[in-house]
Amino acid sequence: MSESAVSGASEMTVATAFAGMRRVSPVVFRAGCPDCRGRFELTASALRLAIGASDRTTFYSFTCPDCGAAVRKPAGERIVELLTGGGVRTLRLHSTV
Fold it and tell me: Which residues of 64-90 are buried (b: 16+ CB within 10 A; e: fewer)?
């Protein structure tokens, strides 16, 4: 960027840049526990997504907030899309072959 382009630009404060933006609610995901049959909502930070080479090795996991069980469920294409779009941390599994 040239100096003339910078000097001709007006300064903008952070407040001005974000004026009019609304607070965004955190994304929550509905889930259920197969052990205790509890139904609840989880934030993206409570979920983990593992993407493998096949449908059998692609899954999401979480700890049940009701009973403490470790839950692992298969994740199809649509679930992967929703979880990644919602900010869930993702681990990509690599094959050893």
Answer: beeeeeebeeebeeebbeebeeeebee
Q: What is the DSSP letter of 54?
A: S
According to DSSP, residue 28 is labeled E
Distance in angstroms (rounded) separating the CA atoms of residues 85 and 65: 23
Contact (Cβ atoms closer than 8 angstroms) between residue 66 and residue 33: yes
Q: Note the pTM of the prediction, 2 decimals.
A: 0.69
| Helix boundaries (H) for the chain | 3-8, 14-17, 77-85
* Cα atoms in the Cβ-side hemisphere of radius 13 Å centred on 54: 2
Torsional sign, CA 93, 94, 96, 97: positive
- Which residue has 């899954």 as its token pair? 59
Interval 35-59: pLDDT, tens: 999 999 999 999 999 999 888 899 9
